């Protein structure tokens, strides 16, 4: 399969790069590398919204190209190189798995700016690579709060993608805040081992419903679980995009990725020469994480308390990982009042106390 | 613990798109044609079925449209390979690429729409019958149709003259031609049947199983269908077993996780493929080609010399 998607991706790049050749007065060119299709209505779709925001903000001064379904690995290097040879001044790679490819290409083209989503920097990272991500766990806290209130079976399902820190952080954050409002709540986590496979995601949702869950959170990109929840009368939350077409139920709120402001800011800096390497991790306060409208399916007092939680996180008066929190094995992670630092969160690989499953290796 | 009844119910729904595509491809391969474009035909079936079902409000018209769309695509393959005598492997791969791209283009305005629901055959009250209610009586007509299709394919291939001719064409097209059978015509019909089945499987995916349209939503189902044909050693009932095995393991491993039973997920995920490899090794260890049961003329270009 990868070979064919690669061919597709290459063809898409070739077509995409053929267009800018006719443009006048050399606009600033930006190339986006996407891991999925822009029509996934999830992760990649939100990045493409960001790309469109850049076009809207700068008009004729910029030109953007993108390649969809680019496999993580060596193929991504070829796609990036081709974009740069076609004139790209800035490259944005929007998946964790592009890290190595991004750094390799960045070393070859020191004059090109690179932005890598959900990545990290170390001592060997070239100075023309910046990384950025969103504090999705802040949004997960609000979703967990609502889920804890809404479940009647006291079983909340969670469709997880891969066992990486970002996903584990989300599970922990949602669980902590569900337990805060409902001491009897339990989480059932299913690892789908994919970011995007509508059929598998739908099956996972069905398996969780069959296991007794009546509220389901997802950390995969398609809307397929929503349709299963709709048929079963259960509740869920929009992921990455608002998924508003499933409101007022099963989608009772959502956690949205909003990259537009960041992209506009960084492209502007690159154009006026002030761009510098940075490690950006923004949350609700900066607008990178959005909480979608809470529908009438949620009782008014829960909507109020969830909104208060969101506002406290945005104001910086509350951090979702505030002690006392124990690890799953009962050992102390955070003492009362202590908050987790960014490095710990970025490398988080364990469940907190109360979660019952095991994290696969 | 895991409820075996919901597991079996889920397994059947999970397997049906793959089963439909596999049974179509089985007939195509029995006629001596290797069409690797199953994935492309499935996704065209998925998008055509979805568009028509949403446009008309009728899932049944959607299923028909899915079959028609994929059949039209299979005719492209038939024209290239049977008339222009192109390489079947390359043409099939190209068909998959073309199908994926075209489906993405056609389906763009349909992302995030919910299709009209497909009704079940038996009334809701009958679903409540213990055990057989959910397992046997709770499905939509396509599921019953898929099993009937397996039976019909088995019967036609094994017990009818039509099946005999189809197999003759697949085993030795020169001999069949010498006997006066229209090799190209028979193969084109087989390819169309394969297209219709793949299209129905795709439409089932987008209208019942997921149900919504998402770009690239087949995610390799067509390739699994191709593997099942080999796994089944070109026998219809074995294709049914193979498809249910694939679907069963997929449904089981998700339930094992949801029930928090500690099993290595990756191993279970890989197990259908491991089983396929083992079956292939076992059946191909016999030296005689007959044991493998592959149609002798599979993938070979037929050029009528007289």
Would you write up a description of this structure?
The complex is a heterodimer of chains A (361) and B (306). By secondary structure, chain A is α/β, with parallel strands linked by helices. Chain A folds into 2 domains: 27-134, Rossmann fold (3-Layer(aba) Sandwich), CATH 3.40.50; 136-256 and 287-346, 3-Layer(aba) Sandwich (Rossmann fold), CATH 3.40.50.2300. In chain A, 40% of the residues lie in helices and 19% in strands. Chain A contains 11 helices and 14 strands. Chain A has a 6-stranded parallel beta sheet, sandwiched between helices. The longest helix of chain A is centred in the N-terminal third of the chain and has 17 residues, at 2-18. The radius of gyration of chain A is 21 Å and the shape is globular. Chain B has 306 residues and is mainly α. Chain B has one domain (4-108, 138-293): Orthogonal Bundle (ABC transporter involved in vitamin B12 uptake, BtuC). Helix content of chain B is 73%, strand content 0%. Chain B has helices spanning 4-30, 38-56, 59-83, 88-107, 124-127, 132-136, 141-159, 161-171, 173-178, 183-209, 221-231, 236-258, 265-285, 289-292. In chain B, helix 1 packs antiparallel against helix 12. The longest helix of chain B is centred in the N-terminal third of the chain and has 27 residues, at 4-30. Chain B is globular and about 60 Å long. The termini of chain B are far apart. The relative contact order of chain B is 0.21. At the A-B interface, helix 1, strand 7, helix 7 and helix 8 of A face helix 1, helix 4, helix 12 and helix 13 of B.
Biggest sheet details of chain A: 6 strands, parallel
Largest sheet descriptor of chain B: none
Class from helix and strand fractions of chain A: alpha/beta
Count of distinct structural domains of chain A? 2
H/E element sequence of chain A: HEHEHEHEEHEHEHEHEEHEEHEEH
User: What fraction of residues of chain A sit in β-strands?
Assistant: 15-25%
Gross CATH architecture of chain B: Orthogonal Bundle
According to DSSP, the number of beta strands of chain A is 14
How does CATH name the architecture of the largest domain in chain A? 3-Layer(aba) Sandwich
| CATH class label of the largest domain in chain A | Alpha Beta
- Outline the low-pLDDT stretches of chain B: none
Reported by name, the CATH topology of chain B is: ABC transporter involved in vitamin B12 uptake, BtuC
Most extensive chain interface and residues per partner: A-B, 47 and 45 residues
Broad shape of chain B: globular
C-alpha termini separation of chain B: 66 Å
Tally of individual helices of chain A: 11
Radius of gyration of chain A: 21 Å
């Amino acid at each position: 399969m990868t070979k064919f998607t690669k061919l597709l991706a290459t063809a898409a790049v070739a077509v995409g790069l053929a267009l800018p050749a006719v443009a006048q007065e050399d606009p600033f060119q930006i190339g986006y590398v996407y891991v999925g299709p822009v029509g996934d209505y999830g992760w990649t779709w939100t990045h493409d919204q960001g790309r469109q925001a850049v076009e809207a903000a700068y008009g004729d001064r910029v030109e953007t190209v993108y390649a969809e379904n680019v496999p993580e690995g060596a193929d991504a290097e070829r796609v990036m190189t081709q974009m740069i040879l076609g004139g790209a001044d800035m490259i944005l790679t929007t998946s964790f798995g592009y890290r190595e490819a991004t750094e390799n290409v960045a070393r070859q083209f020191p004059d090109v700016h690179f932005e890598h989503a959900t990545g990290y920097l170390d001592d060997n990272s070239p100075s023309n690579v910046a990384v950025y991500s969103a504090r999705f766990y802040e949004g997960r806290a609000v979703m967990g709060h609502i889920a804890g209130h809404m479940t009647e079976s006291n079983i909340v399902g969670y469709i997880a993608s891969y066992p990486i820190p970002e996903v584990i952080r989300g599970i922990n954050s949602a669980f902590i805040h569900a337990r805060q409002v409902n001491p009897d709540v339990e989480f059932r986590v299913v690892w789908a081992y994919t970011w995007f496979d509508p059929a598998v995601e739908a099956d996972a949702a069905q398996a969780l419903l069959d296991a007794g869950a009546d509220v389901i959170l997802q950390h995969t990109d398609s809307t397929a679980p929503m349709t299963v929840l709709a048929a079963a009368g259960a509740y869920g939350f929009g992921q990455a995009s608002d998924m508003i077409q499933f409101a007022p139920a099963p989608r009772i709120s959502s956690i949205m990725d909003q990259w537009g402001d960041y992209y506009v800011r960084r492209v502007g800096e690159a154009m006026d020469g002030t761009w510098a390497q940075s490690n950006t991790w923004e949350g609700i306060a900066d607008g990178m994480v959005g909480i979608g409208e809470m529908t009438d399916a949620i009782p008014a007092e829960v909507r109020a308390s969830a909104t208060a939680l969101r506002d406290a996180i945005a104001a910086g008066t509350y951090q979702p990982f505030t002690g006392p929190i124990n690890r799953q094995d009962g050992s102390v992670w955070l003492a009362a009042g202590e908050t987790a630092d960014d490095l710990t969160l970025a490398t988080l690989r364990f469940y907190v106390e109360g979660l019952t499953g095991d994290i696969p290796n | 613990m895991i409820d075996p009844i919901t597991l079996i119910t889920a397994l059947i729904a999970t397997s049906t798109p793959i089963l439909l595509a596999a049974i179509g491809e089985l007939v195509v391969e029995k006629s001596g044609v290797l069409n690797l474009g199953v994935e492309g035909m499935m996704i065209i079936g998925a998008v055509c079925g979805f568009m028509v079902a949403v446009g008309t409000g009728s899932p049944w018209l959607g299923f028909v449209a899915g079959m028609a769309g994929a059949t039209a695509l299979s005719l492209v393959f038939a024209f290239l390979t049977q008339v222009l005598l192109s390489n079947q492997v390359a043409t099939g791969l190209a068909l998959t690429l073309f199908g994926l791209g075209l489906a993405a283009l056609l389906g763009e305005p349909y992302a995030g729409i919910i299709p009209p629901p497909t009704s079940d055959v038996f009334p809701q009250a009958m679903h409540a019958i213990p055990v057989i209610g959910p397992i046997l009586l709770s499905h939509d007509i396509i599921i019953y149709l898929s099993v009937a299709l397996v039976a019909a394919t088995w019967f036609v291939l094994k017990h009818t003259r039509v099946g005999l001719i189809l197999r003759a064409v697949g085993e030795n097209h020169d001999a069949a031609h010498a006997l006066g059978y229209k090799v190209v015509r028979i193969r084109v019909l087989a390819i169309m049947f394969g297209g219709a089945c793949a299209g129905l499987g795709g439409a089932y995916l987008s209208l019942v199983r997921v149900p919504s349209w998402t770009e690239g939503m087949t995610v390799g189902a067509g390739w699994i269908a191709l593997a099942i044909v080999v796994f089944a050693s070109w026998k219809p009932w074995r294709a049914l077993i193979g498809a249910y095995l694939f679907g069963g393991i997929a449904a089981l491993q998700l339930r094992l996780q949801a029930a928090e039973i500690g099993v290595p997920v990756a191993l279970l995920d890989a197990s259908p493929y491991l089983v396929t490899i083992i079956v292939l090794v076992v059946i191909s260890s016999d030296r005689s080609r007959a044991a493998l049961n592959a149609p002798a003329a599979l993938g070979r270009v037929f050029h009528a010399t007289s």
